[in-house]
Design a protein that fits this description.
Number of strands: 13
CATH topology of the largest domain: Rossmann fold
Radius of gyration: 25 Å
Largest sheet: 6 strands, mixed
Number of domains: 3
CATH superfamily of the largest domain: HUPs
Number of helices: 19
Helix content: 40-55%
Distance between the termini: 55 Å
Length: 428
């Protein structure tokens, strides 16, 4: 793409702080720049909280820059104190390697890997065999403990207990930047704004040792208009792994976000042109709701592919009623236009043993035991409030039971509140 990627990132809201903004802007405008973002491999999937970094890398690559995704196989064995109130669980190398493979597969939906393109590197490659005495002599001498203790990350942890192991984290991440600069001429580190202190430490280390001009760029932490962390649901994180969060659930999260977050999220989590996205701010009513459908479709398409996005959209139409998309609405989107034949293929399905149906088990027990609600008590409360429907009929009796009579066309259609839909099917 033509132009300077910094302009695109600013317009989309990806800029919080930049070191030396003018020299970096000039550098990004005249040559391809290798840059890196770190990812924590302590889980076998990324989640929506990682998407700011993933999408920033996507835009950088589209403008001709080279992404380096670092999985912290070495630093994960120490633990980053940033944003944490306690020390994290330690993982084995085998667990970290398994998680890394799954993370790369997810990143491949957004980035193009290959020679001269995106790279995924484990920092264990250089941290795993460090000589501690040499590291302290060559690297540790460049760090001031007094300065490190002024950073908010460390000040917060001092109140709850900061281990010496974690105190080393900033040195190790700074060393990552230095090694990437030496090996790949990496000139830029990007990350969430909670990483600002670590990014500054890395840039400073490179300058002290090599005199190189390197830069840092942070983007805002991901929060909703109400101030909550984006990507958090009642059941936990919104994962990119379809086995942890189904494409339908993923789609439903985006289609139901607060109106105040729609334009912002279209800028963050889709590749639609900003000219079209900015025009949405002036829409009202049904037209504005269509923008939520486009957001959900485009975000799901990037994470799970176009087929899964279409299935999720069509299943939502079946559950909530059709939303016809005019042919000229956000024309850059690949969302299906016009009326679609509804399908329930992507609806979350829960298998219930035949014995449960035969025993005529109370609905509240089924909901609580099979994860449709957080507990049996919550299910009873929802039934009392009139928020539970079976095959379109409201359930009013808190002692209502589930029987095989409720099965229609091979399933039991469940609605809980306004937004949760499930199909119950009988298993042996």
């Amino acid at each position: 793409m033509q132009g300077n990627v910094t302009d695109e990132l600013k317009r989309r809201g990806f800029v919080q702080q930049i070191t030396d903004p003018e020299p970096l802007y000039e550098l990004l405008g005249k040559q391809s720049v290798a840059f890196y973002i770190g990812f924590d491999p302590t889980a076998d999937s990324l989640h929506v909280g990682h998407l700011m970094g993933v999408m920033a890398m996507t835009h950088m690559q589209r403008f001709g820059h080279q992404p380096i995704a670092i999985v912290g196989g070495g630093t994960a064995m120490v633990g980053d104190p940033s944003g944490k109130t306690e020390m994290r669980k330690m993982l084995t190398r085998e667990q970290i390697e398994n998680n890394t493979e799954k993370i790369k597969a997810q990143l491949s939906r957004y980035l193009e890997f290959g020679p001269g393109k995106a790279m995924l590197i484990d920092n264990y490659d250089w941290l795993g065999n460090l000589n501690y005495i040499e590291f302290l002599r060559d690297i540790g001498r460049h760090f001031s403990v007094n300065r490190m203790l002024t950073f908010e990350t460390y000040k917060r942890r001092l109140e709850t207990g900061l281990s010496f192991l974690e105190f080393n984290y900033q040195l190790l991440q700074a060393y990552d930047f230095y090694m990437l600069y030496k090996k790949y001429n990496c000139r830029l580190q990007m990350g969430g704004d909670d990483q600002w202190a670590n990014i500054l430490a890395g840039a400073d280390l490179v300058r002290r040792i090599d005199g190189g001009d390197v830069y840092g760029h942070t983007f805002p932490l991901l929060t909703t208009a109400s101030g909550k962390k984006m990507g958090k649901t009642e059941s936990g994180a919104l994962w990119l792994d379809p086995e942890k969060t189904s494409p339908y659930e993923y789609y439903q999260y985006w289609v139901n976000i607060d109106d105040r977050d729609v334009v912002k999220c279209l800028g963050y989590f889709t590749l639609l042109p900003m000219e079209e996205i900015e025009a949405i701010a002036n829409l009202e009513g049904a037209q504005f709701n269509l923008a939520k459908t486009v957001l959900a479709f485009e975000a799901t398409k990037l994470t799970h592919g176009e087929a899964a996005a279409k299935d999720s959209m069509v299943a939502a139409m079946s559950a909530f009623g059709s939303r016809e998309i005019p042919g000229d609405f956000l024309s850059s989107s690949s969302i299906p236009r016009g009326s679609l034949k509804t399908s329930e293929q992507a609806m979350p399905t829960v298998e219930i043993p035949k014995a449960v149906f035969k025993a005529e088990t109370k609905l509240a027990e089924v909901f609580g035991d099979y994860g449709l609600t957080g507990s049996r008590g919550e299910a009873r409360r929802l039934i009392k409030q009139g928020g539970v429907y079976i095959n379109g009929e409201r359930v009013s009796d808190v002692d209502a039971v589930l029987t095989s009579v409720d099965i229609q066309d091979g399933k039991v259609a469940i609605r809980i509140g306004k937004k949760k839909h499930y199909h119950l099917v009988m298993s042996e």
